[in-house]
Amino acid sequence: MIFLKLLFHVFIFLLLTIATQIGGVIYLVSLFLVKKNSEKKALRRFLYFSIIYLIATFIIVPNISPFFGREKIKESEVLQAHSFFYKLANRNYVKPELNTVISKIAIDFSTKNKGIKLIYLDANFPFFDKFPLLPHLSHNDGKKIDISFVYATNEALSNKKPSISGYGVYENSTTKEFNQTEFCKDKGYWQYDFPKYLTLGTINKDIAFSNKANKDLIEILVNQKEVGKIFIEPHLKNRLNLSSDKIRFHGCGAVRHDDHIHFQLK
Fold first, then answer.
1. I want to staple 126 with a disulfide (CB 3.0 to 4.6 A). Which of 65, 73, 137, 142 is the partner?
2. DSSP states along 189-228
3. Phi, psi angles (nearest 5°) of residue 147
């Protein structure tokens, strides 16, 4: 029984650390703050954890992260997270330079497409280079961020997205386009389309991928001198008639990028 309890605590610690970076440590603190013989021990631990976590996430961490060269993404009327989860899980931190670039991209894109916001997904954790932000392979230095594609309803651009998480609903290749997913999976890279299991549910089924708006957005990204690489699927690069060398194929060892745009600083 003691071993099972220990195993449970280790699992929770690892899960919270993987998801939020700081959650595992706060979980351990909440365990030590409540005595083993306390009444309603589990409830007390949950309350302690929740209070400390929220204080840390929204007050303490934003003030400490600049010492690690990172800061929270500065949201505005034209730049927002896809969901509150990305902020609650501390996945909304970037280098100051990237913060400036994101704001400029959002303003430029919204100016060209009135009322349409730049929606970001996973960015980076607040502390330590090389600390992995799973399931991503490279979001570990404050220089990377994922943003959503732009969709339309009856040809009118919309801020709606096709999945709850922002990931996992793909703009598949047509029969006339190269199928990178099929190629990678045939080579044994089974994980290539794994994000289809991470949607948390599909929504807004009346929207469609906007070729024009997404081309506009990616061209704005390309024109930022600070941006070094942009990842989307090869069939979308060809479909949108994009030719910049900044637009790369991320490799079969990653996951497919026809559900979001990844870009990073040089």
1. 65
2. -GGGGGGGG--SSB--TT-EE-HHHHHHHHHHHHT-TTEE
3. -130, 155
Q: CB–CB of 26/53 below 8 Å?
A: yes
Cis peptide before 234 (omega within 30 of 0): no
Distance separating alpha carbons of residues 124 and 69, to the nearest angstrom:
12
- Pairing assessment for the beta strands 151-153 and 156-158 based on DSSP bridges: antiparallel
Where do the structural domains in the chain lie, given as residue ranges? 2-66, 70-265
Structure token digits, residue 111 = 């100016």
pTM above 0.85, yes or no: yes
Other Cβ atoms less than 10 A from the Cβ of 149: the count is: 23
Residues of the chain scoring pLDDT < 70:
none
Strand partners, 163: 202
Class of domain 70-265 as given by CATH: alpha beta
What confidence score (pLDDT) does residue 6 get? 85
- Locate the DSSP E strands across 61-204: 71-72, 79-81, 93-94, 118-120, 144-147, 151-153, 156-158
> What's the pLDDT score for residue 50?
97
State the sign of the Cα–Cα–Cα–Cα dihedral 172, 176, 180, 182.
positive
What are the structure tokens assigned to 176, written together? 């006339």
Question: What b/e sequence results for 199-214 when a residue is b if at least 16 CB atoms lie within 10 Å of its CB, and e otherwise?
Answer: beeeeeeebebbeebb
Report the SS3 class of residue 58.
helix
pLDDT at 41: 84
